[in-house]
Design brief:
The complex is a heterodimer of chains A (292) and B (326). Chain A is mainly α. Helices cover 76% and strands 4% of the residues of chain A. Chain A folds into two domains: 1-36, no CATH class; 74-142 and 176-289, MetI-like (MetI-like fold), CATH 1.10.3720. In chain A, helix 3 crosses helix 10, helix 4 runs antiparallel to helix 10 and helix 10 (179-190) runs antiparallel to helix 13. Chain A is globular and about 75 Å long. Chain B is mainly α and 326 residues long. In chain B, 77% of the residues lie in helices and 0% in strands. Chain B has helices at 2-60, 64-68, 82-90, 93-124, 130-142, 149-159, 166-173, 180-191, 197-204, 209-220, 222-238, 241-246, 255-276, 284-321. In chain B, helix 4 (93-124) packs parallel to helix 7 and helix 8 (180-191) packs antiparallel against helix 11. The chains are: A mainly alpha (292), B mainly alpha (326). At the A-B interface, helix 1, helix 3, helix 4, helix 5 and helix 9 of A face helix 1, helix 4, helix 5, helix 6 and helix 11 of B.
Chain lengths: 292, 326
């Protein structure tokens, strides 16, 4: 190898590194960058299927304007998707952290319960989830069997009660969506050294205090990972209205240009939300960095 | 004198012991109460997680008579596999199973191999532009597939890959495919925690970079492999988005597609029944629902079986694989 090219140690190291990730770069170009570029091009054009293939006529930003100005479905779908995400992700994070704290304690049958808590990832994803939603299996019977609505209506006005119960109903969905997050939190909790808790105990800290002063800062990175994961997951879920809508526009009505434009708008909205999340976590993450 | 002081000391000690016993008893009962409360919480949570599965099993085993019987909530009077035998045909089980296995296990194995190589490159080498490529890996995870699905579909159509398994296989070979970026990140996380010593020893003994990777480092990554493999299998198994795009002929349908198809037909039938027959005789719909539940059970059964056997290793190795990231 060293006969033709005389590479320094450093040069060889770099070359080896690149050769390991080269397959990823090829894949990125083929299945990501080029399609992304093309879809951006599509979104700026009117596309027609002719015998010679796709015929494009330049349309400028017309599709983007149409999505907000003339399409009566797109904006409501986008709104519900974003509000769903905003209400569910905090709940998922709180619930999964609590479950992880519970499951991380040493008790009998820990492994069994961990297995059960992860079950929804197996059965409640993709097509199965849609099925279950249609059949009403996603709602726990307590909410409609015991006439909770009638009983609570005596105390709480209907306008507040109805969304509240709807929210409670979506709690089961929240629980099912938090399987992966629970695992990530458990993995994070396991990395915290027990000596920290012992030291805190010697100094007279209560459990509550040691949670906020030790556990919470130490699993901050996992909280960040989980937030990102939950947001992305909620945006690409199969029961997501906007995903379905874009699919229908692109593949049923064969309106490729408009479908691509909506895909780009959706992507930009997601990027903005993720950028905000990055910004919020930036300070707390840099604070924990030196502590490991 | 001596005896009285001894006696008083004795009673004193006795009362002290009693107090101590009381304290420990209070402590212990509080501990028991805490444990009971703890188990109550965790059992009720576990019930919610088990609920969909129990619901499906119960519904799928019911006969039409049981559905109509209002006294039956969970346990049917007589277990019957009648729904299953209907569903077995309706979703074309064996053919779909073969297709599902090819897609999900094939992609999973390929993704384990490719993502491991890529993750190793990122974790153990320092090269210019690394930060940019790493950012791009995260980027691929964040882009919704809808954004670029149209050109991708056109690409596969032009290549003549539609109605073959190639749209699943080729991206998986190159470390992409369904959530490929996430798997790369898991491997990066795992490899960056391993000590340098093993690698250095192998290099000093004269092994090249790829041989070092393949014989020393790759076998060490078993926990990460297991996690990636299982996630990949499960997600491919349940995914409906890609198969409905690339597999358009019923012959190639996987289980999830067959089930969705059956469900769509059944819903249509129900609607027709509801519109044509008067409201009073809607006996057909509930049984169809039970057949759908049986179809769902059949679809997830193989994956459930896999999970049952690997669950212990899986949950353990998630901890060791350091899926958590920094």
């Amino acid at each position: 190898m060293g006969k033709k090219f005389k590479l320094s140690m450093r040069g060889r190291h770099i070359l080896e590194g690149y050769s390991f990730i080269s397959i990823w770069i090829i894949g990125f170009l083929l299945f990501m960058l080029i399609p992304l570029g093309q879809s951006f091009y599509y979104s700026l054009n009117h596309l027609e299927l002719t015998q010679g293939g796709l015929k494009a006529t330049y349309a400028g930003l017309e599709h983007y304007r149409a999505a907000f100005a003339t399409d009566i479905d797109f904006r409501p779908f986008l709104q519900t998707t974003v509000t769903n995400m905003l209400t569910q992700v905090p709940l998922i994070l709180i619930f999964s952290m609590m479950s992880a704290l519970l499951l991380n304690r040493g008790f009998r049958g820990r492994m069994l319960f961990r297995g059960i808590f992860f079950l929804p990832v197996i059965i409640a994803s993709g097509a199965i989830l849609r099925e279950l939603l249609e059949q009403g299996a996603a709602q726990l019977p307590i909410f409609y069997q015991s006439d909770l609505f009638g009983k609570l209506n005596a105390f709480i006005p209907e306008d507040i009660l109805e969304p509240l119960l709807e929210y409670a109903d979506s709690l089961t969905m929240v629980m099912w969506d938090s399987g992966v997050q629970i695992l990530i939190f458990i993995a994070g909790l396991q990395t915290i050294s027990p000596s920290l808790y012992e030291a805190a105990k010697c100094d007279g800290a209560t459990k509550w205090e040691s949670f906020w002063k030790i556990t919470f800062p130490m699993i901050m990175p996992m909280l960040f990972v989980n937030t990102l994961y939950s947001i992305v997951n909620s945006f690409t879920k199969p029961d997501n209205k906007i995903m379905e809508y874009i699919n229908n526009i692109a593949f049923r009505s064969n309106n490729y240009g408009y479908g691509s434009a909506m895909g780009w708008i959706y992507f930009i909205v997601i990027s903005i939300i993720l950028a905000i999340v990055f910004f919020i976590f930036r300070r707390s993450l840099s604070a924990t960095e030196g502590r490991r | 004198m001596n005896t009285t002081s001894l006696a008083s000391k004795y009673t004193e000690l006795q009362s002290k012991a009693k107090d101590a016993w009381k304290v420990t008893w209070v402590k212990r009962s509080r501990g028991i109460l805490g444990t009971v409360f703890f188990y109550l919480v965790i059992l009720s949570l576990a019930f919610v997680f088990m609920y969909p599965l129990l619901y499906m099993i119960s519904k799928s085993l019911m006969r039409p008579e049981d559905v109509a019987d209002a006294t039956i909530q969970w346990i049917p009077k007589k277990f019957s596999l009648q729904n299953y035998s209907i569903a077995l045909d309706a979703i074309n089980f064996w053919k779909g199973l073969v297709n599902s296995i090819i897609i999900s296990f094939g992609s999973a194995i390929l993704q384990v191999l490719s993502c491991s190589i890529i993750g190793y490159g990122f974790a153990r080498y320092r090269f210019p532009g690394q930060a940019i490529f790493l950012a791009l890996v995260v980027f691929t995870f964040l882009v919704p597939p809808q954004t670029f699905v149209v050109p991708l579909f056109k690409l596969f159509l032009d290549l003549g890959w539609v109605n073959t398994h190639l749209p699943f296989v080729v991206p998986a070979i190159l470390g992409h495919g369904l959530k490929g970026a996430l798997f790369v990140l898991i491997f990066i996380q795992f490899y960056s925690r391993l000590p340098n010593v093993l690698e250095e020893a192998a290099r000093i003994d004269g092994a090249g970079p790829f041989r070092t990777y393949w014989t020393i480092m790759f076998p060490l990554a078993k926990p990460a492999m297991l996690v990636v493999f299982l996630f990949s299998v499960v997600w491919h198994w349940n995914d409906l988005f890609e198969p409905t795009l690339y597999l358009l002929v019923p012959e190639y349908f996987n289980l999830a597609q067959n089930m969705a198809f059956f469900n769509g037909n059944a819903n249509l039938e129900m609607q027709q029944a509801a519109s044509s027959i008067s409201q009073g005789t809607l006996g057909l719909a509930p049984t169809l629902q039970n057949q759908i539940m049986a179809a769902v059970m059949l679809t997830i059964f193989p994956i459930l079986l896999l999970y049952l056997f690997t669950q212990r290793y899986f949950v353990e190795s998630v901890e060791r694989a350091g899926i958590a990231g920094e």
